[in-house]
Design goal:
The chain is of the alpha/beta class and 357 residues long. 34% of the residues lie in helices and 17% in strands. Strands 5, 8, 9, 10 and 12 form a five-stranded mixed beta sheet that branches. The protein has a three-stranded parallel beta sheet with strand order 2-1-3. Strands 4-11 form a two-stranded antiparallel sheet. The longest helix has 16 residues, at 341-356. Keywords: Periplasm, Signal, Transport.
Length: 357
């Protein structure tokens, strides 16, 4: 779930192995979060299959949804939404089953049991997990050497009276979840009363003089490194990646999961309803399910793989905090509930009100 800009990669057709004829010499249009795919994996897939891969990017689930409803479900072959967002895609008829009735994708058995039939896809028909991780608060350790691990660093004016800070851009339900957690309703709150309180808190927070705005998670890390902000919302893997790249630049950035609770997110692979190259899409998903490929993806992104067979192949650092949460931290993590229908409309209405007050 990274948001760093990356130049689009268009591969060259190389050798072709045993794939259905319709999948050979095709193009695969991958719609993904920015810098969330190892270019070497794309090159290897192209070399093995002869399928050209074109990458397109989005920075939020809402942006992806908007493009799919505007005809993108007939333009893209594979998408990588957040798991909790899948019921919206399924309900809108924007995705298709990964395999025919009674069939299964090769390699799916390697997925950890907890991700086989998740709440967002109970029968496991539409998705396979891509990566998973945590969302928490990144902060300047020189400004706060030992902060209380609380959402209060963002929401409490007394805890942070004058240091510039940001909230996460592009995800209404996540932001309401953080506000709910701070207010004592739990990160996985759903419903009118807690959301009204959350919307009020977000509106009040926006009016504070030291509130900078809503910022993408990776941009948060960059702004922390430059000193533009002193606290914001980030993903654990993004920070781990930056620290590995340049400890000197990012070494003063700390990270914690608030004691009130936060998000354990899962990103998944799915195929749009009218994908122009569905056979190539299934070939790509099966390729990504290979343990050695899943391990390479995790090593590239510094996130945790849901592929159990891949775990022995990942870097040792990915099996330790902050990438792999310890038992105490894991107890504070919950999945974002899926919402739809009237509940989703209420969420969007309250979010719009929170941004306009």
């Amino acid at each position: 779930m990274s948001h760093r800009p990356l130049v689009a990669i268009v591969g060259l057709s190389l050798s072709v192995l045993a794939l259905p004829a319709a999948a050979q010499q095709q193009q695969l249009n991958l719609f993904n979060w920015s810098d969330y795919m190892d270019p070497a994996l794309i090159e290897a897939f192209e070399a093995e299959t002869g399928i050209d891969v074109v990458l397109n990017y989005y920075n939020s689930n809402a942006e992806m949804f908007s493009k799919l409803t505007a005809g993108g479900d007939a333009q893209y072959d594979v998408i990588v939404p957040s798991g909790y967002f899948m019921p919206r895609l399924i309900g809108a008829g924007l995705v298709q089953p990964l395999a025919d009735e009674g069939a299964s994708l090769a390699g799916r058995e390697a997925i950890m049991e907890e991700f086989q039939t998740p709440a967002y896809d109970p029968e496991g028909r539409y998705t396979v997990p891509y990566l998973w991780g945590m969302t928490g608060i990144a902060y300047n350790t020189e400004t706060w050497p030992d902060p209380e691990p609380s959402w209060g660093l963002l929401y409490d004016p007394e805890t942070n009276q004058d240091q510039p800070f940001a909230l996460l851009k592009g995800d209404a339900q996540f932001t309401f979840g953080t506000a709910c957690a701070y207010l004592g309703h739990g990160f996985d709150c759903v419903g009118k009363d807690p959301w009204i309180e959350a919307a009020k808190l977000v509106s009040e927070t926006r009016k504070r003089d030291n509130f900078v705005g809503f910022v993408d998670a990776t941009a948060t890390i960059e702004q922390l490194a430059r000193g533009t902000i002193q606290a914001g919302v980030a993903y654990n893997g993004d920070l781990a990646n930056k620290l590995a790249e340049s400890p000197e630049t990012y070494g003063k950035i700390g990270f914690f999961i608030p004691e009130e609770g936060s998000q354990r997110w899962v990103d998944v692979m799915a195929i749009p309803a009218r994908a122009p190259h569905p056979e190539a899409a299934r070939a790509f998903v099966e390729y990504m399910l290979r343990p050695e490929v899943a391990a390479q993806l995790a090593n590239y992104n510094r996130y945790t793989t849901p592929n159990e067979a891949a775990l022995p192949l990942v870097d040792p650092a990915l099996r330790e905090p902050p990438v792999m949460p310890d038992a105490q931290t894991r107890q504070r993590l919950v999945s974002t509930p899926s919402v739809s229908g009237d509940t989703l409309q209420l969420l969007q209405q309250l979010w719009n009100e929170a941004l306009s007050r």
